[in-house]
Amino acid sequence: MFCPLFPAFGPAPVAERLRLGNVRVLVTTDELYRRKVAEQREQLPELEHVLIVGPYPEASPGTCSFDALLAAATEEFAVPDTDPQEMALLHFTSGTTGTPKGAIHVHEAVVAHHATAAFALDLHPEDVFWCTADPGWVTGTSYGIIAPLTHGVTLVVDAGDYEARRWYGILASG
């Protein structure tokens, strides 16, 4: 199961969701880890592993390089069987009305994402698709990542804050 987080959240909302979700493994960047998690790590006893994606400075104690672990891994692995009703994804609400609520998505939900991507979004394998919703929110994950991948679509994912010049640059490079 995975739980995407909105990168614009401050340290307290991130820690709250990590606690509520009983998160054991966090995959993030060094910059986000330092700004949002490092100081609160002791209050997150469930958090066993922090995997840093991208540049990995050795100065981040209690973390591992995702890239190094991936490079050292064998290319052979077994994909475990999953029950269609087994938890696959946990999304949290924004928390504007109190404690954030976790919404569980099961493995079978991918079937609905696939169908709506075909019929509502008309996605095809030769498409390049960009859902401008942040990947930390339900639309950004379900229809910006999962649904297009089920169709073999090339994805554009941008988790940065809205900035018109960068967005136009992304569009111009496509």
N- to C-terminal distance: 32 Å
Per DSSP, the total helix count is 6
Order of secondary-structure elements: HEHEEHEEHEHEH
| Topology, number of strands | 7
Gross morphology: globular
Q: If you compute it from the alpha carbons, what radius of gyration comes out, rounded to the nearest whole angstrom?
A: 17 Å
Q: Could you say how many structural domains there are in total?
A: 2
Q: Which spans of ≥5 residues are poorly predicted at pLDDT below 50?
A: none
Plain-language structure description:
With 174 residues, this protein is α/β, with parallel strands linked by helices. The chain has 2 domains: 1-74 and 88-105, Rossmann fold, CATH 3.40.50.980; 107-174. Helix content is 33%, strand content 17%. The protein has helices spanning 11-20, 30-36, 66-72, 109-119, 138-150, 164-173; strands spanning 25-29, 49-53, 64-65, 87-92, 102-106, 128-130, 154-156. The chain has a 3-stranded parallel β-sheet with strand order 1-2-3. α2 links the parallel β1 (25-29) and β2. It starts with 10 loop residues before the first helix and ends with a helix.
